[in-house]
Design brief:
The complex is a heterodimer of chains A (289) and B (113). Chain A is an alpha/beta fold and 289 residues long. Chain A is built from nine helices and eleven strands. Chain A has a nine-stranded mixed β-sheet with strand order 3-6-7-2-8-1-9-10-11, sandwiched between helices. Chain A has a two-stranded antiparallel sheet with strand order 4-5. Chain B is an alpha/beta fold. In chain B, 28% of the residues lie in helices and 24% in strands. The chains are: A alpha/beta (289), B alpha/beta (113).
Chain lengths: 289, 113
Amino acid sequence: MSDVVIASGKGGTGKTTLSTNLATLLAEEDPVVLVDLDVEEPNSGLFINGTEIAREIKYKMIPRWESDACTLCGLCQQVCNFHSIIKLGKEIMVFPQLCHSCFACSELCPTNCLPMVPMRMGQTTHFKLGNLVFVESRLDIGQEQAVPLIAQTKECVKKKYSSIGFKIYDAPPGTSCPVIEAAKDADFIILVTEPTPFGLNDLRLAVETMRELSKPIGIVINRHGIGNDEVDAYCAVENIPVLARLPNDRRAAQLYSRGERIYTQLPEFKKELEKVALHIRSLSEGGRQ
Amino acid sequence: MKIAFTAKGIDWDAQIDPRFGRTDYIVVYDEEADTLTNTDNREVEGIAHGAGPQTAQKLFDLAPDVLITGNGPGGNAAAALQKAKLKIFTGAGGMTVKEAFEAYKKGSLQDFS
C-alpha cells in the first residue's frame, strides 16, 4: 500500500500535471485512486474524463445557541481557542466560519445550550475511468475552512477504497493548515518545484514543513531547462533524491491547456514520469515485505 | 457620550490604528467626565484567527456610543458590532487620536453603518 501526496511550496509548479499523468500511468497496470485535495480550487478533474459513480454532500458540525436555559456564564467563550463564539451582553454569537468543530463549547456548556448541528460545507464526487478512481472534493462558495473537508475526504477514501494499493493525493499549495492535513498521513511526499529562485525559496519552506512531519520526501523538478541549477544543488546538499526532471517543452503546455495527458504524446516526458512511477512501485513493494 | 478609537498608543497624540480586529489599543474618550482611558489589545498579535470577534467583544463591554477607526471592521467583527448598536466612523487612518476626534466633530469621517 502506498499513499503518495503530491505537494509543493509554490503554486503553479505542476502538482496537478504530475498527479494526473502519474495516476493515469500507474493505472495502465494497477488499480489507482487519485484524490484532489485542493478543495478550494480542485482542477485535476479537468484532465480526467471519468464517469460519475457517487456524490456526497459534506457537512461540518457547529454549535447552535439555544437561549432558553442559558445562564450567560461565558464558559463557551473562554474555552474556544478560535474566538468563534462570543458573549455580547445577553446574547451568545457563533461565527460558523471560524469554528473548528472541536465540540468544547458544546460539551462543556453547563446547561446544554449549545447543541452541535450540521452545516453544509461542500461535496465529494467519485468518478471511474478504467482502472482509475478519481475523487474530487469541492468547498462551497463562501466557506473559509479547507481542513475539515480535506480530513473527511481522506477518511472516506480510506474506508471506501481500502483494497486499492496506489493512492495519489493532489495537495493544495503552500505550507499552511490545509497542506498539513493533506500530508500528515502520507507514506511518501513528492514535492514538485521549478528550477527558479522562486521555486527554490518555496521548496525550502515545503521541505522544512515535511521534515517537521517526519515524512520521507522526493523532488520532481518540472520545466527543467529554465532558470538555474540551484534546486539541484540544494537537493544534493540536503540529501533529498530528485526523482525526475520533467522537461520544459512548449508542447507540454499546449497539451495541458487542452486538458490532455502529456506522457502519452511526449516520449521525453514519459521517460521521466516512468522514473517516478518506478519509485512509487518500489515503495509499495517495500511496504508489502 | 463615549467615543472609542482604535489606536497604536494610549494618548491624544497616538496614531489611529487603521485595523479594527488587530488594533494595538482601544482608547475611549468620555466627553462628560473628560477622561481618556485605554484597553490594551496587543494580545491579538499572537492569535491566527478570530481577532475581529475578540476585539468586538472587548469593545462591547466598554459600551461606547461611537467607534472611530481606519479601514472599518471585517465581516465577523461587523456582525458582532451590529449587536452593540454603536455608530461606526472610518477613514481616520493616518491621523492622531486628537485629529480623528476633531474630524469626527466636523463630520468629515465616513459613516460605516
